[in-house]
Automatic annotation (TrEMBL):
<keyword id="KW-0325">Glycoprotein</keyword>
<comment type="similarity">
    <text>Belongs to the glycosyltransferase 2 family. GalNAc-T subfamily.</text>
</comment>
<dbReference type="InterPro" id="IPR029044">
    <property type="entry name" value="Nucleotide-diphossugar_trans"/>
</dbReference>
<keyword id="KW-0472">Membrane</keyword>
<keyword id="KW-0808">Transferase</keyword>
<dbReference type="InterPro" id="IPR000772">
    <property type="entry name" value="Ricin_B_lectin"/>
</dbReference>
<dbReference type="Pfam" id="PF00652">
    <property type="entry name" value="Ricin_B_lectin"/>
</dbReference>
<keyword id="KW-1015">Disulfide bond</keyword>
<keyword id="KW-0735">Signal-anchor</keyword>
<dbReference type="Pfam" id="PF00535">
    <property type="entry name" value="Glycos_transf_2"/>
</dbReference>
<feature type="compositionally biased region" description="Basic and acidic residues">
    <location>
        <begin position="1"/>
        <end position="12"/>
    </location>
</feature>
<feature type="region of interest" description="Disordered">
    <location>
        <begin position="1"/>
        <end position="35"/>
    </location>
</feature>
<dbReference type="GO" id="GO:0000139">
    <property type="term" value="C:Golgi membrane"/>
</dbReference>
<dbReference type="GO" id="GO:0030246">
    <property type="term" value="F:carbohydrate binding"/>
</dbReference>
<keyword id="KW-0430">Lectin</keyword>
<keyword id="KW-1133">Transmembrane helix</keyword>
<keyword id="KW-0479">Metal-binding</keyword>
């Protein structure tokens, strides 16, 4: 294909247009961009190669890749160079309450300059790429709901500072019905310093992040829309590598590599070491990242080149604006938060687009301590996220794979997902490929980690026949202490188990084992969907076939494996489906 051919073509043709006095221009912010394309004066050879190494002999230290910003001035305020900042004893109470309110330690964030420097986390190669001069312009869209002040505004400053001015059409802020005071007049005043480059729109009601993003895209005027969460810090030259892929092929969704920013001390750090990762999922549609398979890596010549990914975390990505709407934007039936990353990903891949992660584009994201906001009043009796997943599953998965989702989340099966006519019509009209194709050609490593699931033999709360207590994880995690039994609450959650026809007992994304032959513990599920648990539906006995023992309800919250005794009522269980 054309794409493959170009990826292999390493002959550098693109000429760099560089203004001679760029180095003398005073930086307006921390980082400015010394390169202004001046096509009238410079002979620019147009090539179709959007991501191409420049001629090595030109790339002396004074002549890096064509959009490379100058060096940071060295500064040493709190948090500079992405260093951690700390809370004093006097600040402790305020820091904790801000963390409860925003999911971030705002006391620490407030100490850090809006334009602090962060370490360049890119591969060294990245500095030497020559990007096309005629890149599309970008609207950076920040949707926000009750975000903290300094984390939000640092995002805006960072986008402005780190983007070549002529490529940044605007920053579009869309307030998703926030109630915090600092997001009212103070925000309106503050953005005036950006001379109209930062625009602010407000939702008349809570739309959730998904609907708000679509609205932000409608309000945008750039060629490309770039979504960022409202608590990000852009790294050096983050924008051109994303735009270059879209210029090359407008059906590519270009995704930056997400670095971590700590919610407490705001240290900026890469999430992974050398190895590239990409976005996948398990069958309950929890988002996962996994090392990129060799087969994909070897399609490229240079380790800093973009690679294809089945999906992405959701928050940070660039797309051709018109193409986003040609693809139907987000499903309007998705509510507030979650699953929209899969909807757009599956739709893109199955209907002719693609997703690429771009190693030379890096953006830091502050991972929250917890989600500080609710989802508002919604008439939904299952978790909103599950409802969103169901809409995605019902539209984009085939029967075989749908079944894996409902095996992993049996309690939501059959819940009404609302009208899908528009989505199904889109799929048909665009002749979209099957999910099987997607699994085989794009997401082929998923089965290695998350095998096809055999049917459940039983699922629900595991209740003692002779009492009112149910098997309960007791909040234990992998590597933690013993699980137990406690009063049945019929809400599922920590009391919702699945035993499949191959003997695996699962709870959520985890599996249950009895490593010491006595107490039950959480485990990472094996890469085979098998296990030692034999449930006899008639007698209610749950037997561990390797230890040759049976599950017995003890005193207090205890549950253990004991020698099997068919006459012991404490070894009899009933599994009740709960919805
Ligand atoms: O009702 C809401 N309205 C909003 O405008 C809820 C949230 N929001 C805003 C919010 O202020 C923020 O700017 O939407 C943005 C995302 O919300 P977060 O930061 O609470 O989400 P998250 O970072 O916990 O979750 C990830 O998954 C989400 C749901 O699917 C979105 O896709 C987020 O963008 C996504 N974040 C990322 O991908 C960041 C990187 C990796 C992670 C996690
Ligand atoms: Mn976020």
């Amino acid at each position: 294909s054309k794409k493959d051919k170009l990826a292999k073509d390493s002959n550098p043709i693109h000429k760099v247009a560089k203004s001679p006095d760029a180095a003398e221009e005073a930086p307006k912010n921390v980082v400015d961009n010394p390169v202004e394309s001046n096509k009238a004066q410079e002979e620019v050879v147009q090539v179709e190669v959007a991501h191409q190494f420049g001629p090595p002999q030109r790339l002396t230290p004074g002549q890096l890749g064509n959009f490379e910003p100058r060096d940071y001035p060295s500064r040493n305020g709190p948090g500079e160079n992405g260093q951690a900042v700390y809370t004093t004893m006097e600040e402790r109470t305020r820091a904790d309450s801000s963390t409860r309110e925003f999911g971030f330690n705002m006391v620490n964030s407030d100490k850090i300059a809006m334009d602090r420097t962060i370490p360049d986390t890119r591969l060294d190669e990245c500095k030497y790429w020559q990007y096309p001069e005629d890149l599309p312009t970008a609207s950076v869209i920040l949707v926000f709901h009750n975000e903290g002040w300094s984390t939000l505004m640092r995002t805006v400053h960072s986008v402005i500072n780190m983007s070549p001015p002529h490529l940044l059409k605007e920053v579009v802020m869309v307030d998703d019905y926030s109630s915090k005071d600092h997001l009212k007049g103070r925000l309106e005043e503050y953005i005036k310093q950006f001379n109209g480059k930062v625009k602010l729109y407000r939702n008349p009601e809570r739309l959730g992040l998904i609907g708000t993003r679509t609205r932000g895209a409608e309000l945008s005027t750039g060629d490309v829309i770039v979504f960022l969460d409202a608590h990000c810090e852009c790294n050096r030259n983050w924008l051109p590598p994303l735009l270059a892929r879209i210029r090359y092929d407008r059906t590519i969704m270009a995704v930056p590599i997400v670095d971590g920013v700590d919610w407490d001390n705001f240290r900026y750090h890469p999430v992974y070491g050398e190895a590239h990762h990409r976005g996948i999922f398990e069958w309950g549609f929890l988002y996962k990242e996994s090392a990129v398979p060799k087969k994909e890596l070897s399609r490229r010549q240079h380790n800093s080149e973009p690679y294809r990914s089945p999906t992405h975390a959701g928050g940070l990505f660039a797309m051709d604006r018109k193409y986003f709407f040609e693809m139907g934007a987000y499903d309007e039936g998705l509510k507030i938060w979650g699953g929209e990353n899969f909807e757009l990903s599956f739709k893109l891949w199955q209907c002719g687009g693609s997703i690429e992660w771009v190693p030379c584009s890096r953006v830091g994201h502050v991972y929250r301590n917890h989600m500080p906001y609710g989802f508002g009043k919604l008439d939904v009796k299952i978790p909103v996220i599950s409802l969103n997943y169901m809409r995605v599953v019902e539209v984009w998965l085939d029967d075989e794979h749908k079944e894996f989702f409902y095996t992993r989340e049996p309690s939501v099966r059959g819940y009404p997902v609302g009208d899908l006519t528009k989505q199904l019509k889109f799929k048909k009209d665009h002749n979209c490929k099957s999910f099987k194709w997607f699994m085989e050609e794009v997401a082929f490593e998923v089965y290695d980690r998350f095998p096809k699931l055999p049917p459940n033999k039983a699922w629900g709360e595991v209740k003692e026949k002779s009492g009112m207590r149910c098997l309960d994880t007791m909040g234990q995690q992998v590597g933690g202490g013993a699980m137990g039994i406690s009063g049945c609450h019929h809400f599922g959650g920590n009391q919702m188990f699945r035993i499949n026809t191959k003997g695996q007992m699962g709870v959520g994304e985890r599996c249950i084992e009895a490593p010491n032959g006595s107490t039950l513990h959480m485990h990472f599920c094996e890469t085979q969907p098998t296990g030692p648990w034999q449930l006899d539906l008639t007698t209610g006995v749950i037997r561990h076939e390797h230890h040759e023992k049976c599950l017995e309800a003890g005193s207090g919250n205890k549950v253990t494996l004991e020698p099997c005794d068919p006459s012991n009522e404490k070894q009899k269980w009933v599994v009740n489906e709960v919805r």
